[in-house]
Each structure stands twice: as structure tokens, then as C-alpha cells.
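Customer escalation, tier 2.

The customer says the design service returned an amino acid string that "doesn't look like it belongs to this structure." They asked us to rerun it and document both sides in this ticket. The original C-alpha cells are below, unchanged.
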């Protein structure tokens, strides 16, 4: 085995332990492109040296910077459209009927730069505009991510015109954002106030999260091994109220947990209901 391959293997083991992400054999280029700048800044020559430094200095902040670089993903507003329409037309009305006086709780897992939880908050606003008085106790969206940098950016609720061009309609931009100058826009306070951002690793205990009516865990599970994926889905089930719904990514499927979830065809799209 070449030195470069041995370095890569050592880094793969570190990353899976740190956050569950399983890198394929062909992902050296991805690791290089995401870590080159950081390694240069830190004066680190090889991945083995990087892993050694992170292990030897656990409080230096380097571990967080590495995980940040490897887990930060581009995302879109109202990604794939249908999940948000299904939320508005099926899931929210069902949840209100099941518990008329309760506040609805939604978990946006691995929320990245915040587009998903803020899209969910806008979806609740659109539901309330069409169905005044129905959502009596309102809704809370808990948005979690591993990346501290991402969460800091999310909390500010500010985006540039490039980020806003990715899936946000002109109508929604006008209704839900205030211009800040310099091509930047801030999400209006009522949309922001529905969302609570928390630092969270999907490999950790879920006990502090509480129970949810709806969980969005979209385009996340593709990064994990089959066993870790199954474990996460079991633990998500534990956070869902009976009859609650799980939304996965458009290219993700839930196989092998028939005692926990049943598939619901929504045309378009599929969601999963907790048994």
C-alpha cells in the first residue's frame, strides 16, 4: 500500500469515528479539495500528521475545523419542492387533527447553512395564511448540525443574492426577507423566531431533543455505513410521536425497518410514518 493510501485510510477511520461519515475508496480528491487550505494554514504535510495532531491536541479546535470542512454541504431553498407541499397539504393538517391544542415540533437534522429549517418556517407561515386560526399553538423547528461555523451563519439569518438564487422564488424573497445592502438579505424576525439552532452529532444521544411530529433527515444518510444508517433511523423513530412523519432525501430509501415505519406514497414523493 502506498503512503498516500495509508494516510487516506487512517483519515477515513478518524472521520467515521468523529461523525459517522464513511468515505469511499475513490474520495481522495474530495478530502484533498476540502482540507488542502486548512492543512496549509496549519503547516501540516500529510493526512497522517493531521490525524496525529488532532488526537494529540483534542482541545485545540483543529478537530472541529476538520469535521467542519468535511461536512459542509451546499443546499437549496425548498429542495425538491414536494416535501414542503406535502407538509402544507397533508402532514400539518393531520397533526393538528391528532392533537388540536398542541404546538407542532419539527426536527431539521443536519441543517447545513439553514435553508431547510427556514424553508420549513416559511411553509408554516404559508399554511397559517391559508388556514387562519388552525395552528393555535404555533410550531417549533429544532435545526441541528455538527458544524459550529454553519450554525453561527444560520443564526444570523443573512444570505447573499447567490445563495438566495438557489430555489427561492421572487415572491418569497419579497415576503420573507429584508434587504440589508451589498446584495445581502436578512430573514424576517417571525420566520427566524420559529427556528432554534443546536449543535448536534447524529452519533450522540437523542434524549435531549424531545419528541417530534415531523423529522426532516434529507440527503444525510447517504454518508453513513449501512449499520450506522440503521442505528440513526431507529433512534429517529424514538424521537417521533406515534403517527409522526419522517422525510428522507429524494434519492434515499428506508429498507429493513418494517416494524418501525410504513411507507406513504404522496405522488410525487414518498414519506415514512412512524408505527
Amino acid at each position: 500500500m502506498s503512503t498516500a493510501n495509508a494516510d487516506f485510510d487512517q483519515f477515513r477511520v478518524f472521520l467515521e469515528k468523529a461523525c459517522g461519515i464513511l468515505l469511499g475508496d475513490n474520495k481522495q480528491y474530495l478530502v484533498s479539495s476540502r482540507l488542502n487550505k486548512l492543512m496549509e494554514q496549519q503547516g501540516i504535510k500529510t493526512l497522517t500528521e493531521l490525524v496525529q495532531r488532532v488526537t494529540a491536541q483534542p482541545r485545540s479546535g483543529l478537530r472541529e475545523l476538520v469535521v467542519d470542512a468535511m461536512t459542509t454541504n451546499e443546499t437549496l431553498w425548498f429542495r425538491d419542492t414536494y416535501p414542503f407541499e406535502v407538509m402544507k397539504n397533508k402532514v400539518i393538517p393531520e397533526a393538528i387533527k391528532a392533537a388540536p391544542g398542541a404546538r407542532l415540533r419539527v426536527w431539521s437534522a443536519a441543517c447545513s447553512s439553514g435553508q431547510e429549517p427556514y424553508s420549513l418556517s416559511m411553509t408554516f407561515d404559508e399554511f397559517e395564511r391559508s388556514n387562519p386560526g388552525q395552528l393555535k399553538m404555533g410550531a417549533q423547528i429544532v435545526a441541528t448540525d455538527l458544524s459550529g461555523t454553519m450554525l453561527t451563519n444560520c443564526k444570523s439569518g443573512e444570505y447573499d443574492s447567490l445563495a438566495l438564487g438557489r430555489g427561492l422564488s421572487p415572491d418569497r424573497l419579497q415576503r420573507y426577507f429584508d434587504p440589508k445592502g451589498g446584495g445581502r438579505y436578512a430573514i424576517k424576525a417571525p420566520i427566524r423566531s420559529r427556528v432554534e439552532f443546536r449543535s448536534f452529532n447524529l452519533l450522540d444521544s437523542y434524549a435531549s431533543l424531545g419528541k417530534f411530529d415531523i423529522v426532516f433527515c434529507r440527503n444525510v444518510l447517504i454518508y453513513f455505513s449501512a449499520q450506522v444508517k440503521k442505528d440513526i433511523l431507529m433512534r429517529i423513530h424514538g424521537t417521533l410521536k406515534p403517527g409522526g412523519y419522517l422525510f428522507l432525501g429524494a434519492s434515499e430509501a428506508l429498507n429493513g425497518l418494517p416494524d418501525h415505519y410504513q411507507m406513504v406514497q404522496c405522488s410525487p414523493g414518498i414519506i415514512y410514518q412512524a408505527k
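Tier 2 assessment: The sequence is consistent with the input. Residues 222 and 252 are 7 Å apart (CA to CA). The two ends are 48 Å apart (CA to CA). Sent an explanation to the customer and offered a walkthrough call.
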